[in-house]
Amino acid sequence: MFFDILNTTLTDMTILSAISSTIFIILLGFIARKKEIFNDQVGKILSKVVLTVALPALAFKAFMQDIDPSSLAEGRNVLIWGIAIYIILIVLSKPIFMKFKGDEQDTLRVLTIFGSTTFFGIPIVGAIYGTEGVLYASIFNIGYRIFLYSYGYIKMSGLKMEMKNVKSMFLNPIVLATFLGLFIWLVQGYLPQVTVATETGLTEVAFLRIDQTAPWLFQPMTYLAGIASPLAWLAIGSTLGEVSFKKAAASNTSWFYSFAKVILVPIINIAFLLILTLTNILPVSLVGLGTIVVMMATPTATVAAAYAISFDKDALLASNASLLSTISAVVMMPIWIVIISMLDSLGIF
């Protein structure tokens, strides 16, 4: 039974293609950096393009679809869990890292709670679960943004919340695109309607549904959304090619952190969501579960690592942890995808 499910999962061309694309393009970026085809600025430039142009287009585009009771209920549950899981991790990270003290514990906790959901997670979700996955990933990330720029900042800086972080929370392109898309998706039935021609005939849609009302504007956004994944993976590979794995691998603390971030955190999510789905308290679909697990199995968030460096909270540990968790995430991501597919075969989600 187990091997039949495993064989079915590993021969699914959608899953296999998504896994191979992720690994091969990251490897290509790594080789290009090692061979100095990419210089030390390429990773940063690609990251900036992804974060300011491609991912906002991907997030907005995901909301350009019809709303129905099931997707609305799923989105609501993902939003609730996207807030609850950070409260849970804030509590659970304390005993997980109880043997560490002071700045080291604070850094490990914040780096564990906040992963690279936007830059690392969403492109993989899009490759595996398509537009529906990106929709739920964008909704899930609302809680991430709130806690990253509030709890994460306060914990690492020791200061009170500053206005600049409120601006960072709400005024970056990805958040703006997410909230605009979410607004259109939720209220499309109440907006002024226009008649458009579709493959099945004439239909009425909200005038802001640019996928139907302004395809000349939606198509460039589709192209931009399409480059999010490959550019993100090239940037990840290029970044990995810049740092010394040997030095980072000497840190046992960083290895323990990587285990907690890439293995333990996804397990916590699966365990809670399994219980919540079986009890029908907060049920999620397979796509919802898979999206959340991929998002939570991501390596160190860039902003969290930047906090550690900026506020001198064990910056070396943050750098080593970021590298090892990225490598661990690349290795573990295919495994998590297979595990999620196997859970599907059990008929729970």
From TrEMBL:
It holds the Pfam family Mem_trans. The chain crosses the membrane at residues 15-33, 45-63, 78-98, 110-129, 135-154, 166-187, 223-243, 255-278, 284-309, 321-343. It is found in: Membrane. One of its GO terms (cellular component) is membrane. Its main location: membrane. It is a multi-pass membrane protein. PANTHER family: AUXIN EFFLUX CARRIER FAMILY PROTEIN, SLR1864 PROTEIN. This is Malate permease.
